[in-house]
Every structure is written in C-alpha cells, then in structure tokens.
Write a structure and sequence with these properties.
Layout (H helix, E strand, L loop, with lengths): L2 H12 L5 H13 L1 H20 L13 H13 L1
The structure holds zinc ion.
The site of zinc ion has 6 residues, from helix 1 and helix 3.
C-alpha cells in the first residue's frame, strides 16, 4: 500500500468499514510509515473537532488542526 492509497482508506478505517484484508494492509503501512501514522492521528483529531462543531461532543477543540483538513472532513460529512 502506498501513502496515497492509505489516504483513500482513511475514511473507511475511521468509521470501521474496512474489510479485514484492507485493514491488515492499512495497519501494516501505518506501522512502517511515520508520516501516515501522524496523518491518521491528525485526521482523528479533525473528526473529533467536526463532532464538536456539530455539538456531538463536548471536548475542547484542538487548535493545531490545519484548516484544509477541517474543511475536508466537514465536506465529507455532508456526503453521508
Ligand atoms: Zn505512508
């Protein structure tokens, strides 16, 4: 799996919809690739921020999330 492919799987991974096979590849890549590992952490923070923005969580909003990531998550939420 390449980094770009991992990004494609990210949404399904976070929502728990990856197949066992894809999940194995995904997690293997995460263990080997520090960039993607950090990207995932940032992505999860962004989703959390999105929930907070929608009133689904009461945590403090992290202030280190890039605007484009927030926008991407908010755009994705509109599709679901
Ligand atoms: Zn990677």
């Amino acid at each position: 799996m390449k980094c770009r492919e991992l990004a494609d799987f990210l949404m399904d991974y976070v929502s728990g919809e990856l197949s066992d096979d894809s999940l194995a590849h995904f997690e293997l890549h995460l263990q080997r690739c520090r960039n993607c590992h950090e990207y995932l952490l940032q992505y999860e923070s962004t989703i959390k921020a999105g929930r907070i923005a929608c009133g689904e969580a009461s945590d403090e909003l992290p202030d280190d999330i890039p605007d484009d990531l927030v926008k991407a998550v908010m755009a994705a939420r509109k599709l679901t």
